[in-house]
Amino acid sequence: MRIFALFLVLLGLSYSSTTQAQFSASRGAQHLAILRAVVNYKIDDEEHVRDIERLRENERFNQRVQRMLDRLQNTRTKDSRNRQVLEILENAGRDLERVLR
Question: How many domains does the chain have?
């Protein structure tokens, strides 16, 4: 009987850690979605429309941005650069969520 109770406790602990990991991943995705929504909204801001259009037409700028993007990967690797960029983006989304609440 004690072994069965111990098994149930261990099963409950493993389930809670799995649930926490899923919730944490979900929060990260939420922060990325918030960041994307705010960026998409603010990119059309009247103050910046002309500047954004100039940048989109600037070939040199576009090449520089493309070189930066080429250094990233959208795979789940343990590359420190990818992890660092993702953390920055998630933190920005979290900060925006706090400000806009």
Answer: 1
Range of the domain at 27: 16-100
Rounded to whole angstroms, how far apart are CA atoms 44 and 46?
Answer: 6
Question: Is residue 6 a part of any domain in this protein?
Answer: no
Q: Within its chain, how far is the Cα of 90 from the centroid?
A: 4
Other residues' Cβ atoms within 10 Å of the Cβ of residue 79: 13
Per-residue pLDDT reduced to its tens digit, 8-59: 566 665 655 555 545 556 888 999 999 999 998 888 888 888 998 999 999 9
As a whole number of angstroms, the distance between CA 36 and CA 24 comes to 19
According to DSSP H, which parts of 43-79 are helical? Answer: 49-57, 59-70
> Does residue 75 fall inside a structural domain?
yes
Could you tell me the pTM of the whole model?
0.66
Q: How far apart are CA 34 and CA 28, in angstroms?
A: 10
